[in-house]
Structure of Transport permease protein:
Amino acid sequence: MNARVTLATARRVLAQLHGDHRTVALLLIVPCVLMALLYWVFDGDERVFGRVGLMLLGVFPFVTMFLVTSVAMLRERTSGTLERLLTTPLAKLDLLLGYALAFGVAALVQAALASALALGPLGLDPAGSVTLVLTLAVANAVLGMALGLLVSAFAQSEFQAVQFLPAFVLPQLLLCGLIAPRDQMAGALEAISTVLPMTYAVDGMNQLARTSELSGDLLVDLLVVVGAAAAALALGAGTLRRRTA
């Protein structure tokens, strides 16, 4: 790993993002719009919105980062950019860490905007501190980014990359406890949910709805989310191909 090369890659990706206004809108505006839409769906009912909104504050950034990064990495491969880059001293891990750093900055801005809207004008009032809410929201967005980079290695086209969203993300949404409590699911489904990273992302937000401190359970959720993101990046470095066959 070369820190200088990693930072150069991050700067290049950020420059590309800056020039892609549609992607910037998807990353920064869509989660805010979805949070506002959710608030209006419940007609401003603070009790219901307070229960569901906090969980989705972690889910929306996860989904958008997954979609954008999976397509962005695939575009690098199909355009031949990745093949040219890997003929230089740039290592695969340098490339993925550069992407992670660049999109990590985007995740921080995304989570900050969505959290500011939810905790401010929309009146979301979690028991946990704003710092903890923002930390977990950013971690969830970074997890979505890391998983998006990982699955992009298995797609042959941008259309296939988008197909990974329902195939890879929606099952996690169904089993993470967002729709139904996990302890009320069939035993097999509950067991499957324990190995899905989004389960811990949602559970962490649930913890923040109930406690104002960094409890042991919340710390475990946060560590699992961060660990899953790191593992996805490591696996991505091992599966990354120079170009699409």
